[in-house]
Design goal:
Length: 220
């Protein structure tokens, strides 16, 4: 039977890493591949949603029928995600691994090798998810949390601080799941409940997550 759990629902998903330039040839980034976000986009689309992906630099092809806005930096991600929400958004899912800090300045020319030591001054980046969740017209918001210790504690803390409806926590210290792998294992938290999902492919997990998110969205 056709899956219509999210028929006509507008879903915006952030995915992948951001890159924060140091000079014309270097940047700060992380190991996010975009696989989790793209899998969710595919699952939401298959559930009938109108899906927009706001994606950092990744080597993935957008699922059929999904609109993609590509971005590079955390500042771009905030701008593109905000524009996508302005266009209409019922559910916002943030899977992107956004750089928390960027170099205070980006050098115009390639930085030359000289002294034995060098320091890079960093400044805080804007938080896309927290900004979207704080809007007066905030959609139903789902955050991700990549933690290496006290996963439940930090995930619940992030959900409360950023005023989210749900948070999906991955323990990225477990081998074979999280950043860049094909599989993931997560625990989802919401005010008053939680559900654990054992290791499986990101594609399979995305289908279950979309099911749970639709249930909670409908009940909200
Ligand atoms: O891309 P893959 O290789 O498939 O890997 C998937 C993943 C491990 C990246 C993904 O499952 C995941 O956990 N994403 C969140 C990664 C993360 O670093 O989260 P965080 O704890 O820094 O941030 C918490 C939440 O706020 C996230 O929803 C994040 O998207 C959002 N955020 C954070 C900082 C920022 N400046 N803007 C944000 O929107």
């Amino acid at each position: 039977t056709e899956n219509t759990a999210l028929a006509g629902v507008r879903v915006v998903i952030t995915a992948g890493p951001t890159r924060e330039p140091i000079d014309p040839v270097r940047y700060i980034s992380n190991h996010s591949s975009g696989k989790m976000g793209y899998a969710l986009a595919m699952a939401a689309r298959q559930a009938g949603a109108e899906v927009t992906l706001v994606s950092g630099p990744v080597n993935l092809t957008a699922p059929a029928g999904v609109r993609v806005h590509t971005v590079v930096t955390a500042a771009d991600m905030l701008a593109q995600a905000s524009a996508a929400v302005d266009d209409g958004c019922d559910i916002f899912i943030a899977t992107a691994a956004v750089a928390d800090y960027r170099p205070a300045t980006c050098a115009d020319q390639k930085i030359k090798k000289s002294a034995e030591d060098m320091a890079l001054a960093l400044v805080r980046n804007p938080d896309t998810l927290a900004t979207i969740a704080a809007r007066p017209d905030a959609p139903f918001t789902v955050g991700f949390a990549a933690e290496t210790t006290d996963v439940a504690h930090y995930a619940n803390d992030k959900m409360q601080r950023k005023k989210l409806n749900m948070i999906v926590a991955n323990d990225v210290s477990c081998p074979g799941v999280g950043f860049n792998s094909d599989d993931n294992a997560v625990t989802v938290f919401w005010p008053g409940g939680q559900q654990a999902f054992a290791t499986e492919s990101k594609a399979g997990l995305a289908v279950r997550l979309v099911e749970l998110i639709s249930e909670r969205f409908r009940g909200s």
